[in-house]
């Protein structure tokens, strides 16, 4: 195994497992899907028929989990019981990596939305301290995701500076969301390629790819409810040129198309990865 491959918990092209499509995937488990991902909060302590359904997939595919509610940047105390439950869940299902959003999603209660964190030095130190605690409990590193946001709370630092500082201060890894770079670059008027080029290759564990909604020419909404936009496909190809064929997961949360249409997007990811490998070989 190469050094680059050993950096990644999985390989190839993945698909987010969602309950509305689980039965269709069970009926004909796709060979084009190399790995899957779930939100742990939706499956922890779930037994019965649903628990057996999850086990069907975790016995057949490598799995990652992507959290929704750790709220790593919130002012409320860190939910350490959730972290312990996640640790048990990962052990029970042989899950290879836990990633979370670099955001807040509540204070005393759950907001069911991802709120931006102030881009400040104080916030860097606060978030990093909480990330380090999570890693201590899990006894392994986690990956943080660059999130989409619409109104910055405090822009003392840029989004890029803040993300890089948190990764460095907490010594955690990065789950890079390609679509979120596209969305934020349009909404906040920065160069997506420059942002991409600044990412620390050695911390990247995998990519996310999803669709978004075009609200206006200068406003994109991250929905995970449509096909992947061509700008995101283009940026993904550029990301592969920069970092190699990083494992990439397709996210689709709502408005599911016919299964073959969904899998076509997974296959397109694989094709781009294969093309990258071929170019690498051709260039020596």
Task: Give your account of this protein's structure.
With 284 residues, the protein is of the alpha/beta class. The chain has a single domain, classed as Divalent-metal-dependent TIM barrel enzymes (TIM Barrel, Alpha-Beta Barrel), CATH 3.20.20. It contains ten helices and twelve strands. It has helices spanning 3-6, 19-27, 48-58, 80-93, 121-138, 159-170, 178-187, 192-197, 230-243, 259-282; strands at 13-16, 35-38, 63-66, 98-101, 104-106, 110-115, 143-145, 173-177, 204-209, 212-216, 219-222, 248-250. It has an eight-stranded parallel beta barrel with strand order 1-2-3-4-7-8-9-12, surrounded by four helices. Strand 7, helix 6 (159-170) and strand 8 (173-177) form a beta-alpha-beta unit. Helix 5 (121-138) packs across helix 6 (159-170) and helix 7 (178-187) crosses helix 9 (230-243). The longest helix has 24 residues, at 259-282.
Which key features would you list for this structure?
284 residues; alpha/beta; TIM Barrel; eight-stranded parallel β-barrel; two-stranded antiparallel ribbon; 12 strands; 18% strand; globular
């Amino acid at each position: 195994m190469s050094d680059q491959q050993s950096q990644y918990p999985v390989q190839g092209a993945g698909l987010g497992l969602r309950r509305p499509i689980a039965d269709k995937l069970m009926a004909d488990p796709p060979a084009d899907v190399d790995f899957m991902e779930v939100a742990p909060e939706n499956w922890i302590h779930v037994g019965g028929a649903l628990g057996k359904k999850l086990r069907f997939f975790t016995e057949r595919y490598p799995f990652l989990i992507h959290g929704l509610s750790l709220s790593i940047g919130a002012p409320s105390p860190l939910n350490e019981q959730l972290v312990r439950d996640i640790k048990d869940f990962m052990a029970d299902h042989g899950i290879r990596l836990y990633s979370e959003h670099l955001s807040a999603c509540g204070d005393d209660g759950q907001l069911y939305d991802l709120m931006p964190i102030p881009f400040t030095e104080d916030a860097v130190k606060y978030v990093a301290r909480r990330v380090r605690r999570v890693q201590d409990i899990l006894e392994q590193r986690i990956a943080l995701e660059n999130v989409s946001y619409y109104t910055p709370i405090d822009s003392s630092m840029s989004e890029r500076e803040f993300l890089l500082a948190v990764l460095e201060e907490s010594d955690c890894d990065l789950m890079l969301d390609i679509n979120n770079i596209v969305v934020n670059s349009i909404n906040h008027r920065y160069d997506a390629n420059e942002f991409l080029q600044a990412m620390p290759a050695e911390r990247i564990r995998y990519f996310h790819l999803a669709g978004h909604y075009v609200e206006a020419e200068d406003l994109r909404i991250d929905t995970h409810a449509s096909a992947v936009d061509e700008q995101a496909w283009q940026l993904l190809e550029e990301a592969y040129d920069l970092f190699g064929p990083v494992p990439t997961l397709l996210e689709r949360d709502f408005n599911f198309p016919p299964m073959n249409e969904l899998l076509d997007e997974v296959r397109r990811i694989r094709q781009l990865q294969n093309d990258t490998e071929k170019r690498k070989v051709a260039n020596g």
